[in-house]
Amino acid sequence: MLNSKRLILAHFWLAFALFGLALLLGAWQMFIRSPMAAWIGNPEWYYRSLTAHGTIMAYVFPTLIAMGFGYAISESSLKQALIGARWAWIGFWLIVVGTVTSMIPVSLGLASVLYTFYPPLIGNPFYYIGIVLVVGGSWIWVALMAINLASWKRSNRGVPVPLAMYANVASSWLWGWTAVGAALELVLQILPVALGFKSTIDAGLARVFFSWTLHAIVYFWLMPTYIAYYTIVPRAIGGKLYSDSMARISFVLFLVVAMPIGIHHTFADPQVGAGFKFIHSAFTAIVALPTLLTVFTICASVEIAGRLRGGRGPFGWLTALPWQNPVMLAVAFSFIMLGFGGAGGLINMSYQLDASIHNTQWITGHFHLIFGGAIVIMYFVIAYDLWPHLTGREIRNLHLMRVQLWLWFVGMIVTTFPWHYVGVLGMPRRMAFFDYTDPAIAPDAIPVVMSAFGGFLLVVSAGVFFAILYKSQRSPLCDAGPYRFSVAVHPQTKVPVALNGHALWIALMIGLTVTNYGFPIAQLTVRSDTSVPAYYVGTRK
Amino acid sequence: MTGMAAYAGVHQATMPQARVETVDPTTLHLGGEFVESNLGSAIEPDGSVTVRAIGQQYSFTPQCILVPANTPIKIRATSADVVHGLLIQQTNVNAMLVPGYVSVLTASFTQPGEHLMPCQEFCSVGHEGMWGRVKIIPKEDFLAIAATQRRLSCVE
Known about the structure:
The complex is a heterodimer of chains A (541) and B (156). Chain A is mainly alpha-helical. Chain A has a single domain, classed as Cytochrome c oxidase-like, subunit I domain (Cytochrome C Oxidase, Chain A, Up-down Bundle). Chain A is 70% helix and 1% strand. Chain A is built from 16 helices and four strands. A two-stranded parallel sheet of chain A has the order 1-4. In chain A, strands 2-3 form a two-stranded antiparallel sheet. The longest helix of chain A has 35 residues, at 44-78. The radius of gyration of chain A is 23 Å and the shape is globular. The termini of chain A are far apart. The model of chain A has no long low-confidence stretch (mean pLDDT 94). Chain B has one domain: Sandwich (Immunoglobulin-like), CATH 2.60.40. Helix content of chain B is 11%, strand content 37%. Chain B has two helices and eleven strands, in the order αβββββββββββα. The mean pLDDT of chain B is 92. Chains A and B meet through α2, α6, α9, α12 and β3 of A and α1, β1, β8, β9 and β10 of B.
């Protein structure tokens, strides 16, 4: 049952509208720093655009998708109306107000500090206040998900929590805790300086706080995608989920090990000692485990679908799969991009290999392939799958959906593969201009042009995506029936206590964060000699 | 992979700096290790070379770093204002320069030649213009210049 259709639609529409705007900024950035454009004139415009692109794409867009999808999961998997719908609207409006508040100073050029903040650069305080409001709004969702699950559990004692809701609540706790790092940085360090109460800041400590958020946030972006893999894909392609327990184990593993690994983002930093860099590198290796479990389980589930459709032999099930089905196509694309992106990630987590690509275009390529590619393509699938249940109107043009998914896949590969290549050549990221006439930079020119065309394909794909949703508004009303999730081959009748609740895993998550972050943070906090003067941007010094 | 990292670390192949060192960015120019006259490449008694450099909005000092080939090199660098990065292209020399802290790297270059050294972290408007250079020359040539100069660079 989906009661809060307007609430869910509001989240999805706002998410995709902002995504469309930020995508256009991204494509403009790719053009302006390629050899196709002459000197930009005022490089400040580039950093302004980059700040908006990163802030929207990293904080606002995926958070709204996770929230909207989360409300849909809560209502349809628990079969109970959302408790606290009024609070959910307050959360939504906090995000709207927060986004506007932060984007005004960004568009005026008063906060071109990029979404990673990196003090001692300090922008207009309203930029940071806006982001705090966005995070605050999303924390309402975190609380609501826990409250809805607890209420359901009280009236359904002994019944296993539906997998979709179990994963959704894991995702919300992950976000609730990972956002704490950046929130501490903003509230304790940056805002006092931005508001003028202080004029010095510890830039090293800020980077450690931010790394707490910066890695696990990627897993938060990933969560809706993984929930779609487990609970939408097998049902949509006519198969069954291979293992419900394996799915639960993957989600709780993400909860535990996504967090205490963020210092791999500061491998090249001087304020973290060698020991903690090694510990975090080792823990990062562990986080590959839940992804490998997922790849195994989903491939097995897809094989079940192929065999149910009459596929035989070691490979026959592959050709028997419903390749005309957009969900089948999207999950294949998503896995290919996840495979390449994951391989790149193994390189980034290794201190010695990271040294040659840290902060180059390789990194930009890496997270666009994972997030923009593997993750966002499944956000499209979530929207396509959920839309008829929200609007009561069917999306009938499957052909156009396939075209859109193909364009996104090809566009993302063409965008990110050349980025990886120029990264290996040592091309730094986040620059508004490159002098391609320099013989040492000239080899970057052609790959950069290629990747810009990949970016243009992505814009076309997003245009098709909006056209599909718009056209569906005009198709006749239909009854899509109740929104359903995949069924496991062996449906769970009894689940171990640990895999039916989150308490143990949340305790481990917090415990490991304390052991892996406590000392570096405490040490930098007590030192008095590490604060440096702030540099205010957008004002004359 | 973790085993490989441990092996490489123990054998000093590419190793994170062992300890955290701090420095006050507001007094770099007044005295101490990073005063302007001490920046550049210096020969140590054991034959190795120490390079001292700073990054500031929007350049490196020295803007062109001169080092000998086939010599153990230690780079000590910091920032005078905001977060910068130091990346020597075609090598695995790559470090963040965070104001308040000293970044320490070890390297050894086998081939004479010239590399670009861009700042790899956004340091505000002007970041796109922050490119330094590194020039690697044969060891004999380096020693010949070192006979007459205390701190070496290729700034012309």
